[in-house]
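User: My collaborator and I are trying to settle a disagreement about how two of our proteins should look. Neither of us wants to argue from intuition anymore, so we agreed to look at predicted structures for both before our next call. Could you fold the first one, then the second, and keep them clearly separated?

Assistant: That sounds like a sensible way to settle it. I'll keep them separate. The first protein:
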Amino acid sequence: MIVKATTPSTQLLARHYVKNQRPNKSIAFFADQQTAAYGKGGRPFYAPKNTGLYFSLVLPPRLSPQLANIGLFTTGVAVAIRRALHTFYPYHDFRLKWVNDLYIEQQKVAGILNELIFCPALDQSCCVLGIGINLTTTTFPTKLQSVARAIDPNGSVDRNRLAAALLDQLTYTIFHYQDGRLLTDYRAHSLLIGHCVRVVMNHTVILGTVITIDDHARLVIEDDQHRFHHLASGDVTKIIF
């Protein structure tokens, strides 16, 4: 484990490690603050000092998911994060927004980023898993104030204990995501199932009702022509409750 007081991005630290070392075991990079954190699609992630939990986990090739299984892995990771958070905040109803965000009601409290990074020394790819959680953040940039929130802005939590619980849950996921057992939990806490959504995928817009998350972790949408779409990727840009 490597811990920094501040860094542009734990994900960048982890990527640099993969490209310049020979990862043969998992290693986590934590930071108290990130000044240039990013999420899916390179979008900025607000990571101020002292109020969140931010880390990136490098998995060696033998533990890294194959590209074909990345959806199952990402949904499994979301379940792992939810389980750990629920232990510390049992009074919150954490919901999972396909495929890589955690919400309380209609506001984001945590994000997940999976990147497969090629390691020249091993001639294989390693998974770099980034996690960002808003624990007690009370002030957000203007453009985020309506869409993001803290889990408990007036509370406190032992971040070391929470980090340990997260890593324990992630370890379980690494060895069990392929058997699909985590999907039942994912579906049960989905933010989207039963709701109308707008999804953008490869410059195509799909409107419809989310029917389920299938056994390959794809989002299943029925449009107004009663056609079914099984989406392996895409951005849900609007949810109609």
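The second protein, kept apart from the first:
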Amino acid sequence: MINEILDKQKNQNDKSLEALKKDFTTLRTGKVNIHILDHIQVDYYGSLTPLNQVATVLASDASTISITPWEKPMLKIIESAIAAANIGVNPNNDGENVKLFFPPMTREQREENVKQAKAMGEKAKVSIRNHRKDANDGIKKLEKDKAISEDEAKKAYDEVQKITDSYSSKIDESVKNKETELLKV
């Protein structure tokens, strides 16, 4: 029973760590990353659809993203969706593609992205702490129901804390690595 609680906590923590890494892909570093467009949705015949499901999105070089819609009428819709998303660049429509030309990042932009990365890391840590609370509540319930002894509960609480500390340090390391990547010119 205790092992099930610990396994569940580890699985949830793994998901939180993956979510953090996915969030990091939306931050712009020195070179462009097509994942900066992941949150953009376009109106595709009346339903909101992710941009990458209506067009081919490619990073043609370190500072340019090229978006080729699968249907020509989508050009204007994609262009306006990107403009509305306010990602820091204006879309350029050449009749075939929408191109995004990213200027080199300033020191202030890099520092702002570092702040965002730290906030994302803190959000992941809150999630980890919530998983710890859920695991501790499960152990408390087992102890209250007399399914485990007080000594077993104490050992389980210690194990839950070890798991939490382990994942917290993984998050700190991920944030530190991202910070280094963001500040590298």
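Some points you might bring to the call about the second protein. The two ends are 51 Å apart (CA to CA). The CA atoms of residues 118 and 175 lie 6 Å apart.
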